[in-house]
Amino acid sequence: MSANASYHRSVRVSADLDSPLSRWLWLVKWILAIPHYIVLFFLWIAFIVVSVIAFFAILFTERYPRGLFDFNVGVLRWSWRVSFYAYGALGTDRYPPFSLGPEPGYPARLEVAYPERLSRPLVLVKWWLLAIPHYLIIAFFIGGGMRHGWCGGGGLITLLALIAAVALAFTATYPRGLFDLIVGLHRWVLRVAAYATLMTDEYPPFRLDQGGTDPAPAPASDPAALPDLS
To answer: Cβ(154)–Cβ(143) under 8 Å?
Structure first.
């Protein structure tokens, strides 16, 4: 199995463009999303603490404790849903649930397969040295501040979402091409997020997979599918 195919078994990002969308609700979503931003502020503090604990757990045991893994995946899911609702995509008017779970009925979804084993040597370098090329790229996508975690505001993604919102206001239609591009940019960011926060050892591809449907098969936790990187 190729490295890219193996990677795609670990992380899957998908989204559905809702229709119809309100032509003007996007003007106040920054207010409506405030409760989520407050919760996410504290969740991301916890996310950082959990990632540090996981770093040492992987270093000594080659395993990411399952409870910690599920929590951090939940924070990424929550952030992705809020970003999709608000100014990271404006792709739905359905209010995001206050949930760390998968919420399969919501139009923005994220799956990360649990790794049975992770490399001790890689955990020392992948989150900073190996990820630097991706950091330089996604900083342009999401802005340098990353105010709400990996799906933070600013950057190219927010600009494209606002362009789509203006088109929606005047035509009652969200441009499909813009939607596909925006989701593709988020997919790149979230793949890097999973790698840099120690959830997978498979290096993210330098590839923009556009569209709401992730081209990868559903993630699996099959240890045999993961390369031996120790």
So the answer is: yes
Is residue 221 in a domain? no
Q: Using CA atoms, how far apart are residues 152 and 83, in angstroms rounded to an integer?
A: 8
Q: How many angstroms separate the CA atoms of 41 and 77, rounded?
A: 14
Would you call 38 helix, strand, or coil by DSSP? helix
The neighbouring-strand residues paired with 112 are 11
Residue-number span of the structural domain to which 62 is assigned: 10-213
pLDDT per residue, tens digit, the chain (230 aa), is: 344 444 456 999 999 999 999 999 999 999 999 999 999 999 999 999 999 999 999 999 999 999 999 999 999 999 999 999 999 999 999 999 999 999 999 999 999 999 999 999 999 999 999 999 999 999 999 986 554 456 656 799 999 999 999 999 999 999 999 999 999 999 999 999 999 999 999 999 999 999 999 987 665 544 333 333 33
In angstroms, rounded to a whole number, what is the distance separating the alpha carbons of residues 107 and 174?
A: 15
Phi, psi angles (nearest 5°) of residue 22: -65, 140
User: 105: left (phi > 0), else alpha (psi -120 to 50), else beta?
Assistant: alpha
The answer to whether residues 87 and 162 touch, using CB atoms and an 8 Å cutoff, is yes
Domain count of the chain? 1
> 3-state DSSP helix/strand/coil percent for the chain, to nearest 5?
55, 5, 40
Check: CB of residue 208 under 8 Å from CB of residue 186.
no
Is 54 a member of any domain? yes
Residue 5 domain-assigned (yes or no): no
Tokens, residue 129: 């040295």
Do the domain assignments include residue 57?
yes
